[in-house]
Protein 1
Amino acid sequence: MQSSLFSLSFLVTVVRLATPILFAAIASFIAASTGIVNIAIESIMTFGALAGILGSYLTQNAWAGMLIGLVVGICTALLIALFSMRLGASPILIGIALNTFADSLAIFVLYQLAGEKGTSASLPTPTLGVLNIPVIKDIPILGQLLSGHYILTYVCWIVLILLFILIYKTPLGMRMRACGLNANAARTAGINVERLQVFSLVLSGLFAALGGMYLSLNYLRIFSKSMVAGQGWMGIAANGIASGNYGVLLLSAVIFAAFRAVSIIFSSSTVFPVDLVSAIPYFAVFCFVTIASVINYYRIKSGKVEEQ
Amino acid sequence: MTEKKQKINLSITNPKVFEVVKMVISILIALAITLVILFMISDNPVRAIVTILTGPLTKRRYIGSVIESFIPYAFSGLAAGVLFKSGAFNLGGEGIFIISGVSIAAVACNQLTTSGVLHPILCFLAAIVTGGILMIIPSFLKAKFGTNEMVVSLMLNSIYSGVAMFIIRKFLLTTTTSTIGSRDYFKTAKIGYIFEPLRISPCLILLIITTIVMYLIMFKSRLGYQIRLAGTNPKFAEYSGISAFKLSIVTAVIAGILCGMGASCQLLTQTSFYLPEQSLVGIGFSGMLLSMLGRNNPIGIVVAAFLIKYLEQGTSILYFVDRAVPSEIVAIVEGIVILLISSQYFLRGFREKKLLKEGLEKDAK
Amino acid sequence: MGETILKLDKVTKVYPNGTVANRDINMEFEKGEIHSIVGENGAGKSTLMKMIFGIESPSSGTITYKGEEVHFASSLDAIKAGIGMVHQHFMLIPSFSVVDNIILGDEPKNGIFLDRREAVRKTQEVSDRYNFELDVTEKVSALSVAKKQKVEILKTLYRDAELIILDEPTSVLTPQETEKLFEQLRSFKKQGHTILFISHKLEEVKQISDRISVIRNGVSKGTYRNDELTMEQLTNLIIGRDLESDIDRYKTHEDFHNEKAAVIEDLCLERNGKPVLDHVSLAVKKGEILGIAGVEGNGQLDLVRCITGLEKTKYEGKIMICDTDTSGMNIKGRRDLGMAYIPEDRMGDGIAGPLPISDNMISTYYTRDDINTKLFMDNRAIDRISNELIDTFAVKTESNKTSVDSLSGGNIQKVVVAREYNTRPKFMIAEQPTHGIDIGSAEFVHHKLIELRNSGVGILLVSADLNEVMDLSDRIIVMFDGQIAGYFKNARNVTDQELGMFMLGASHQTPEEIGGALND
């Protein structure tokens, strides 16, 4: 990738890399809004990515593949809902378990169809393309920034806006937030808290699956194991830093993507040791999450905010 | 109560019996689902399941391989068990395994001593110190500042694996092959077998001793009491005067030490050089699943580690005759069992009915 | 006789764990009356209300509302039918505005969007119609307790509730605020609303009710017209015997030479940039109970958190326990000085629910020699001690290995008190020690507190129950807005009306008078 830190192409790279993290971030955010901890985002992204590719291969239609990926994402979310809400398992343990054997399960399924354990490269798969927006694409600078991105990037932007409207401008969103803030109060107001929590988990699964499919169906055009590589966790980290603030949520996700872009640029130069450069985005998330909690700690200590 | 000899209650109303019954039923359900999957993918599903379940017993070499390979996993499970039991979701085991591997390789690739006893011990010490110290980071941040330990520990895992690669490439890189791995260890660093046919090494003895010690810590000691309290209700532990901070540091150190021991067992018996991208990958994460399978009980964890490795050995034997069944099928069994036994309400209705009936009978008397 | 709005016929509720909360309850409520339901804690009032409001469903029997048999699947059905409930613990979302809290669940819409303007207009209109004097755009977290209760009531009126259930509404109010609430309830009655008033405070019940129904042990003891019952008859119906409240009989008067168990000087604490504790100074003497009265949220909780060392925010001032400065000490250090603490949040702070009683009985002194060997814990000694405590505190359980969360509230509280008692304290903080537990257990806890007091322990009692504070205390402090507003050297010489004036902030003593809390 030929670009420096201060060029337009860097920004374009950031836009590309931000898409999956943004999806992961809103997946974490929507679940948290009704008081559900969904840490299985990483695994839902993996399942969604794989299901999208395999669906597309089987139907030979990328959009049909995407539909299948979405269904798998929703089903995983429902599985989490079933075990944590109906059967009383800890959602955190369920999440850890799913994340841990997601790769094995993906490999198992991939092996059955592709006869390979690593990637879906041997399967001829239609994928989704890029979108050039007429008129805008001809505007200098702005055209490059806004046009010519992968289709799911635009889907992501639309979803971000719709989600904002849902959460902050509609009665449904208000009810969802009420569930997260005080489930008992919501319940006595006649709100079916459990139903809204399942709904938010389904949306969470949907968004996470979209994030995974952006990687497989759109950006990389194949499925490869551990392609999610912590991006789901970056979304969770962004949600943790935001603690309910939508703007901070999106900003954090974009900043994490910027660090991934930095890491990619540096890794093409021979000046920096490649192994350490690959750890840059993780180190950035580590620092941001830690600093945010330290600041919060001192705010509590000095009596500026209340402990939660 | 101890003086009065009570008749042991073997009915399902006894919580311990219930736990066992639930475990057995979960395993049976998992096996049944596996069988269904095998029917779908394999031409000879019966042979497949028989091979998986009995294959490892057919040759001494097979069972030896199980005995050797389950040890590091058991250590990893014990580490995750301590952390989970204390209520800490520090998922750093994976990274600790990988980074303490670097310490082991550094010591093993240098002729620090000519003693075949002292050299492995030095390797162990290096790994234990590395693990014990680095495992503290997420737990410290969580205890002191309330940082999300899951995110932090997972990020550290990725950072450590980059750092491990960097150090190996820069200081310990092998010159004989093109792979990115350490040089061969000095012979003195390797751990030999006590009983070669079954591949029993001193590591097995170490594991047994460690398991007993962990059992005593968890169920008999004051530390174990603190861990139970904090893991069940951290607010209550704090209220009772148990320092959450101190406790989380202590449990992290213990877990780090256990990971260091596990990494040493793996690297000094099963390999003769360290490949950061292969040798230890996945052991730390598997440990978390094992601790869930073993319900955070040290003995349960070690048994679970053995059983899982046994099944994996079974599938790898099967793979020679039936290419349709990859070893990942074990993960499916594991996943189903974990989901079922972590479900508090699974089979609970059954038990409650029984309890209600007993209660009514008692009332009638 | 007015027209019957709600009728319960042989309503029975059995919980899955076998507890019979209500048995064959028959009751009739008339339109436009204020009907009180009385009974001691744990008698089954709350369960009955939950069934009427659709939160629980009856195991057998029928509920007839406005002449039709109803089976509410959830509170939503009840709300739709015109029933509203004001819960004892406020069901409000602090970070939402008053409007948002009121419209939640029944929001005015503009297409798919929330119509905020209409919401504000409608809420304000209802508020003004009933003279609530509320600014509905304010955030709930900024409101006083009495105003929060108004929001709760407004919630029911906004949804056109005809039948309003109020569960222990006065437990958080001062006597003066209670008076105002009653005026409001009477005006509701005039406008045709039916009020179900649940309480265990008999004076209030006598004051407000048209008719009174009594529940004891889950069984109805009949419905009476207010004027056909005397106080004594009512008491008898509720507990089946005469009430003995003369705690003073149990108190002995030994001289502990004015020694101080705890001294707090100039304690200040800020939260969200606002002072929640403002130069609080007091001393707890050995062998006395110092009671703290006050409306919830006036700094009592913060005071206790500072004294116990649980407060994370840094405070200013000095806290001495048994003559030792505690600055920099965590709760362990303070406990080692002889502090014990019965927490308000029994389930959250006071126990580890799933663990056995034996584990819960020793948590605050688990390192003590008598339950430890050199290397390990002495499980046999733990069994012995926990069984002894179960006996002395009359905890109803099958064995000491039963998980503590399967006990009733009263028995759980006994476990907490037994444990704190067995730490052999010199200074004890008792925070709402009998909140929500049955009369028998409450009486038991009171006697144990007196016993500790008589043996020379200094006790700081924090309670929202004015009767409890007045009955148990030797001296009384009233807190208002983070300050000590009033101090009474002799708890016998003060009336609840007087305390109420201070709780409301209507009266405030001079610094010299308040200084007595520290110096007497």
Protein 2
Amino acid sequence: MRRNLWLGAALSSLVVLAALVSFVWTPFDHAAMNIPEKLQTPNAVHWLGTDHFGRDIFSMIMVGARTSIAVALVAVGIGMALGVPLGLAAAARKGSWLDELIMRGNDLIFAFPSLVIAILITAVFGAGAVNAIIAIGIFNIPVFARITRGAALSLWEREFILAARVAGKSAARISAEHILPNVANLLIVQGTIQFSLGILAEAALSYVGLGAQPPTPSWGRMLADAQTLVSLAPHLALVPGVAIILTVLGLNLLGDGLRDYLDPRLRVART
Amino acid sequence: MMTDRQSRDRGQDMTLLSIENLTLSIHGTPILRDVSLSIAPGEIHAVTGESGSGKSMTALAIMQLLPNGAQATGHITLGGTDILTATEAQMCAIRGRDVGMVFQEPMTALNPVKTIGDQVMETILIHKALPPDRARARAAEILARVGLPPDRFPLSRYPHELSGGQRQRVVIAMAIALRPKLLIADEPTTALDVTTQAQILDLLKGLVAEDGMGMLMITHDLAVVADMAHRITVMRTGEVVESASTPDLLANMQHPYTKMLFSASTHRVDLPARPAPTPLLEVRGVTRDYRLPRRHLFRDHGTYRAVSDVSFTIDRGERLGLVGESGCGKSTLTRAILGLEQVQEGQILLGGQPVFTGHRPNLAMRRRMQVVFQDPYGSFNPRHRVERLITEPFHLLPDPPKGVAREEAIAEALKAVGLRPEDAGKYVHEFSGGQRQRIAIARALIIRPDLILFDEAVSALDVSVRAQILDLLADLCRQYDLTYLFISHDVSVVRSVTDRVLVMQAGRIVEQGPTEQVLTNPQHPYTQTLIAAAPVLPDLGAA
Amino acid sequence: MLRYALKRLVSLIVSLAVASLVIFFVIEVAPGDPAQFMLGMNAQPDTVAALRAELGLDVPKWERYLNWVGGMLTGDFGTSYTYRTPVADMVADRLWVSLPLAIYALTISTLIAFPAGIYAAARRGRAGDVAVMGATQLGVAIPNFWFAMMLVLVFAINLRWFSAGGFAGWDKGLWAGLHSLTLPAIALALPQAAILARVMRSSLLDILGEDFMRTARAKGLSRRQALWRHGVRNALIPVLTIIGLQFAFLMAGAIIIEQVFYLPGLGRLIFQSISARDLIVVESVVMLLVFAVIVVNFLVDLAYAAVDPRLRSRT
């Protein structure tokens, strides 16, 4: 099953690489319109063809990877930075009002589908990449809080935590020293999965016009632009779609692979 | 081949099950080698041994419920059928009808979403032994037979509404519903309290006697074995080391491993004399209540009294035992003494100072106490090295040793428990269960506490390892004048390592006194039940 | 059982109350005065004031909140700022598109996922399992709106089996309505089915490792009988949670899929309202979606109790 890990790692690094290279080089200027060369199918000059303004699709995909990764990564960061401490705190004070408050708050966020949060936020504060990040990030908080709390709770039952308490360590110190390192693997795996969900969410938001605004290229908006032309030039819709699928597939395979790779050791420690 | 088997069958008319030269490997790892044993109707055959001896795998091989990747050679013949060559469909017909099986863990052996009646009935229905309406009546009958009469335990009960012992009775009912010829019991009482264990063993004995079933009993507990088996087979690392009828084996053990196993089970350590009594820990009228979840919005939440008005004293240099069954409040009391939880009433004083001041544990007191837990696998952070693990209590010291002094303290603690100073750089997964328990003791010793609490510290260990750890305790008593509180459910262990004993039941201390006196001449009815229920090995010295 | 249901009901009401507060105050902080916006920048101050009074904007915030909530309880969702028609009317029409779509998709998703997950678990590690898992891995990665575009391209534009968009309406008969919702429902359902099948498989595999499965086999049940009689019902417990969560995703996902198929559902309503700054409509539609999600999760909680007797007897 190591194959999953390598395939996932290869696909993910390919996308990250494309995004990084786009800062210094793209085949064409991704924003340059060239009406005479519009709607070309893939060919030797324009490797993935051109859109209805004659822009080079390969270049747009490269730069679009930047947007996708940036939005999803920051959203995962927000989720981890807030969710993990909340989860640790809730587990350390299990059953207290703090735990209750954190968990009820989580339930509340879960009751709002992520897209509805995004709609609410953009309706009030306007569309844009930053608000998209906030909307996706907010939804990541309860995910990380919940998974951290669940794993931490079972660790708190373990005798080595009791031993640390007998050694006079505070809950905060035990959380940092014993709990966090033992849930790190789990968080890495979940982080990869949330990252891939972030890519999908960003694409959906941009598709309905609530994500990154022009001229910032994004895969979701490329799909929205392609929609009316889909019968005329199917490659306009195919290319960004395949880019999204490969990225998400790569990240999911990486997450699964990491879980298989990291878990056996955890299991050995547990039994 | 055919004539061979026929002649064997004729020659062993009285044999219900015969295993011949069973060799088993799982994914190429050898598990069993050349195991042979046989069981006659009405016979109880016990297979015993320490963990990794292959006794459970032998049982699963008879059921053909082995893990994936298992490869078996040899013969297992049950009532004329060779199990190893039987098809899966034939095995399905045999399981439940000809062989029933009882497992170790009654809490998880039943399907939580089906009623006990349905689960017992299923054995009958799956073999189409009776039509559904009669199967229901039969299930009620069987449940009554195992001690769950339908007027008190209706068929519509769910497993979670029953205690562990009652659930084990349901599992037994499922196994014997079709009066199988053979009953396999894999550690059937290991997960149960000693008084429940005695009842379940009586039930099993009665069933064998009345129905003329053969029974294969897998257990690690030699006292249980000696008490009920007609025949004993001792296994070690996948091989049979010795097999004989129970009286023969007890009177005349041949193999050194068998001898070691039996002597380790009755191992008595040689404790040094205790110094003159000066009180160290005083527990005065301690009561600990837990809040129960609020059952009604407008009513007050209830409380559960885990420890109720407990008082006792531990003198300096004294080795005190605390025995009781699960749920009696032993663990709660341990936590209260360690100052991990606040008590509702009473006081706990160490050397005259309270362990809990205000709402905070008293660190000055806590550094004078340490604890060793039960689970040699769960008591360490798997990510830290031994040196970091055993120095964790240094956190309690205002001025912990550093540099060379720290190295020396680590080396000394490791040497004291029979490990090498070089072990400091290893991770716990590199050690065996017994060695881990030594590391746990090193962690407790490193700050030279006045008092150590052993919370079921040897309960998870095999008998031979347990004997070594108990010897280590006696050694440490000589070297360091230890004072400890030894908490255990096992009366025989407490007997060997304590001077005085407390007996706890339902949150109260019901009896206390010098260990020998309490255990040989118990006064309180509960202590009497507890001691009567504990299976005891016959005195082998006399034999 | 009744006590359990009541307890869940209380928690449902609390969730709804808190959700309504959050939605109301998020909308409240929106910059700009709806009355001013509707009348344009050049409107006379007294005209604006009159409109504010008409829209009920001239009273304190907490009173507006109470009016809004009280109105919703009696079915009065207020009046659209833009269209000057009752929001309830606008929402009701659209709901008859979005809700059937979500239910249709959930049905397809469950019908595909259950057999696929059970099949894969029963054949763990063999070719069938690998194939199903590979397909779900791909399914999880596909954005549903892109999949919708591909369905349109193949089945509407090339094969002409379905129309590329629009909604026939229920008044033309159940079949016509379902027919125009079929492609959107498939687009919504397949990625969700992939997730659900994975959950079903892993949940079933967890159960297959439980002690009571071995007990069942010791009674003489075949692997298959044990799987169906003891495995599936226990495995349903975590699967139900996911179904509850998926309903939330389907309601939200429908918003986007409606854009692809030009369906006159809540999604189109919400985007039109956002661009017109018709915040009272946004407010009500969001509240309605959250209401649907909370109610579905309440039903899931009740379903738990039906599956798991341990919940029934507790409290």
